[in-house]
Amino acid sequence: MNGHTTPVERMGGGDLMTLASDLGDPPMQIAGILVLDGGSALNADVVAAAVAERASGIRRFRQHLVHAPAGLGNPYWADDPRFGIHRHFLHVHCPAPGDDEALLDIATTSVTRKLPRDRPLWSVTFVTGLAGGDAALVFVMHHVLTDGVGGLAALTRMADGTPAEADPAFPAPKPRAVALLADANRRRLDTLRTLPKGAGKLRRGLRELRPRGVTLAPRGSLNQPTGPRRRFAVARADLRAVRATTREHGGMLNDAVLTAATGALHTLLAARGEETGSLVVSVPVSTRSRDPGARLGNHAVAVPVELPTGGKTIDRLAAIALLTRGRFGSARGASVALVGPVFRGLARLKL
């Protein structure tokens, strides 16, 4: 090629945790739906070309995951020399009546279908035949590619961004074995140098995973392995009114979601004869910078918190807002230091 050494782009700790956690069905994939008004008149080839142009501006969308040989470090990202939109784009016609439920059924099928690991981990399904002559794009990304915040930013760039300029250096060759070994050794030395700080991180990680005042989740019908079947449903609300109410009680929009979820689970458990006054849940908290769309990857920590489920909705909202302010404000991702080595070991074993 040009004689330059291709840099090694290793997976981050959060990405490794996500990869190692992807066991069984359904796969750890996220999805977003864009409805195109009057879009059924669009030509599928034209849509595919537009998606390909936008994807070229998101580097990770043209890279695949590579497992390094034993001793050469963690998995890394490399340009896919076989990248082509035909390997990521699917056109389907929505069955009658072409309503929201039919579209959600297609989205469910798309997000629960495992993405092939021999290519960049995303897909787009162009859905025509929706009611009113509309169409839709169902974007699916593997969670190892990015978290929800990064996925939303990528989706926005795909929908509203301008076509990117062609990259003459694409595809870059894979890093050579000597480069992988040098990078792996450098990272090992960095780990040894930071061992004194690592002890403090482990202590903070234990506190994050098992904070004071949070009990273990009780056994119940919800604490059971789930099957592969999933179904999308839509809950509609006046977002402006919800945001105003949560702010009035010292909370944020996420607190309203937690309030609604705990209330719904309380109703479900009560119908099953399982009364509970609280639930221990793990809530993802972003550790991103002020520019949430600056990079892909997983930049979030799971924070366990014990939330009330009963009582009046407004009272529960205020209580949850108070709890999350205290718990989420101190979350720094130290738990990754605690469980990271375990997941790195699983990654080396390709589990």
UniProtKB/TrEMBL annotation:
Transmembrane segments: none annotated. This is diacylglycerol O-acyltransferase. The lineage of its organism: Bacteria, Bacillati, Actinomycetota, Actinomycetes, Pseudonocardiales. Keywords: Acyltransferase, Glycerol metabolism, Lipid biosynthesis, Lipid metabolism, Transferase. It is an enzyme of class 2 (transferase). It holds the Pfam family WS_DGAT_cat. Pathway: Glycerolipid metabolism; triacylglycerol biosynthesis; Lipid metabolism. SUPFAM superfamilies: CoA-dependent acyltransferases (SSF52777). It catalyses: an acyl-CoA + a 1,2-diacyl-sn-glycerol = a triacyl-sn-glycerol + CoA. One of its GO terms (biological process) is response to nitric oxide. Its EC number is 2.3.1.20. GO terms for cellular component: plasma membrane. Belongs to the long-chain O-acyltransferase family. One of its GO terms (molecular function) is diacylglycerol O-acyltransferase activity.
